[in-house]
Amino acid sequence: MKFKTFFWFVAPSVFMMLLFIAAPLVSVLIQSFQVTQPVMQQIEVETCTPGFLTQTCTTELKTVPTIDEETGKTITTTAWVGVQSYANVLQMDKVWEAVGSGNFGDILQIDFWKALRFTLMFTLLTLPLVIGVGLGIALAVNNAVQSIRGPVIFISLLPFIITPVIGALAIYWLFVGDGILTAVLENILNRDIAMFAQAWTVELLMYVFRVWNNAPFAFVIFYAGLQTVNMDTLESAIIDGASRLERLRYVIIPHLMPLIIFIAIIHLMDVYRTFEEIVGFRSQAHVISLQWLTYDFLVPDDAGNRAISRASASAMLTMIGIVILLILPLRRTWRDHKGSAH
Amino acid sequence: MSSKAMQQGIGLRILSNGFLAFWCLLAAFPILWITVMSFKAPRDAFAPSAWDVITGPDTRAAGNGLSVLDIIIGVTVLFFAIRWAFRLLPRLVRQMTPPALIVLGWVVGALVYAIGFIIVFFGILPPVLGVMNGLLGPLGEPIIGMTTVHYYSVWVENEFFRNFLNSLLVTAGVVTVSLTVGTLAGYGLARSGSNLAFWLLIVALIFRALPHSVLVAGYLPWFINSAEILRPIFGEISPTLYGQPWAIIAVLVAINQPFTIWMLRSFFQNIPSELDEAARVDGCSHLQAFRRVIMPVMWPGVITTGLFSFLLGYNDFLVTSLLLDAQNQTMVPAIAGYFNRETTTTDQVEAVAAAVSIIAPLFLLVMVFQRQIVSGLTAGAVKG
């Protein structure tokens, strides 16, 4: 295919990606060094309250946003503030204070570090869980009789396909208050339980939700991979006297290795932007994630202002995080790719 | 497997099937349970005893319930409705529509069938059964509490159908545009062995990893002020992009592009390039070869990719909740409106009913397109 033809085929797609992905990234980078604020002016306001004989009047200086006479909108200015927004998000002074006094736990009181701790731990801990559960289901389905495989795949796809926010809500409703599963737990443990009252139980439910939500994806891919396992290798392994577990460990898992890496990469990308469970579980008081932090800055506050520059700073930090997280697995695939090409 | 050594011991079989049964229960339970909850009076829905939630004594006491007769007839109608949907409907669609318009025929057929089902099941059946229950006496007494009052208040009183229409608009737009743009790019990438194509795919992969909030932080200031920014170019007609469904469509299409082109590329690679070479020899240009020869054999891949685009547009919460205003809200972010005023248990059950309304179409989607979804998931992975 000539370059010119290729160019015209990919042009619309590249244009959209440049306009709506690359350009916003540049814009976020610039915004993170700027602050846009309404121009404030001080005006004298005289307030009078009715009193006996004369009114009591007080004059005070008030700071109000300047309003453009023509358009009726507030006038804003944009100033370069350097790394001020990053400092506001990171709050390094508090971090050093905590380090200095030896109370490392205090670092996790700061929103950004709290979110970072949860996001990283969540991403890395759910990874083996999802791969393990997915592989388990794939092996079990592969063992099952042909006739039930279709329905089982159908049921397994449900958690993966339904809207993540709704999935989180569904689990929330099972546990909220005296919800059905809380009631069961209370019966078993014989004590009062409130699943959404403390951070660790909320976090536990988030792990449950994520595995429930993502394991089907791993399952489907492993199941497809299991269909291509070389039967001859498997049979020779049996002749050599390999037990079932040894066959799994030395034949099947090496065969699935590329798929495991594939799932790991997709998982890192998807779980790093975990957000839906915070919304569904309404856990912002206890547990927040990096993407939720940016979202929260972007949502207008009570006065209708959006903290765009702080959101941009936290967005940039979030992005740096995912790049660091993905470098290792991507470099490995890259090397495999080059190795296989020769 | 024929080999005797492959046969499994009874213990392992039980373990494996037991695990599978447990997983199926785990996978389906939350969804099934909220569906049951949405049909009960608030006190039953959040009752601590599972039996109370299923039978709904409170709902029954209020006079809403199903008798033995209702259940028998309802299940029979449902059974035949599903059976006909898979046997009768495909045959009718194939007979009634010319092959060129088969997609349109399916859309119309499915729509007519759905409307017919709703009329029979919710319009005709209840009054008829009401009369019959009255005649039957004790057998016509309700035994299971069930009420559709929450669905009524969600869809009619709270005007959830507006959100539904917005969702429909956004997802239809996302699917059409991203497939049009994506198939072109996917074909170009699959047929070009150049380094540029390779790097384009790598950049797309990096774009796919970006959290969506990063992008939204970039859009927001521009979208809110777009009327002023665009005024020098478009004059007075320049729109405020914030709150516009078509702006959301463009954003979601772009966010989805990396994934779309990767998936379509792997489907195009499965089509032997001899096919377009033959077309080229016969005098087609690249675009003609693409349209006349490749696209007709590409439908499975396009349908699969379309499904995933649909899911992205339909399931999105973050982008739509930040970039759309209240009037144009789609269904998923609209449900967040229920949390804010979720003070009484009635509100909670209404939120449950809204949630079930949102996932019901997805349930049907998996039922009809299970094969395509599985093939789509494995397309990228197994071939690397």
In words, what does this structure look like?
- The complex is a heterodimer of chains A (342) and B (384).
- With 342 residues, chain A is mostly helical.
- Helices cover 68% and strands 9% of the residues of chain A.
- Chain A has 13 helices and four strands.
- Chain A has a two-stranded antiparallel ribbon.
- The model of chain A has no long low-confidence stretch (mean pLDDT 86).
- In chain B, helix 8 packs parallel to helix 12 and helix 12 packs across helix 14.
- A two-stranded antiparallel ribbon of chain B has the order 1-2.
- The longest helix of chain B has 38 residues.
- Chain B is globular, with a radius of gyration of 26 Å.
- Chain B is built from 18 helices and two strands.
- Chain B has 384 residues and is mostly helical.
- Chains A and B meet through helix 1, helix 4, helix 5, helix 6 and helix 7 of A and helix 1, helix 8, helix 9, helix 10 and helix 12 of B.
The best one-word shape of chain B is globular
Largest sheet data of chain A? 2 strands, antiparallel
Strand count of chain B: 2
Alpha-carbon distance between the termini of chain A?
24 Å
The number of helical runs of chain B is 18
Structural class of chain B, by secondary structure, is: mainly alpha
The coarse silhouette of chain A is extended
Ends distance of chain B = 28 Å
Which structural class should the secondary elements of chain A be placed in?
Answer: mainly alpha
Order of helices and strands of chain B: HHHHEHHEHHHHHHHHHHHH
Order of helices and strands of chain A: HEEEEHHHHHHHHHHHH
Largest interface: pair, residues per side = A-B, 101 and 98 residues
Mean pLDDT of chain B: 84
Number of helices of chain A: 13
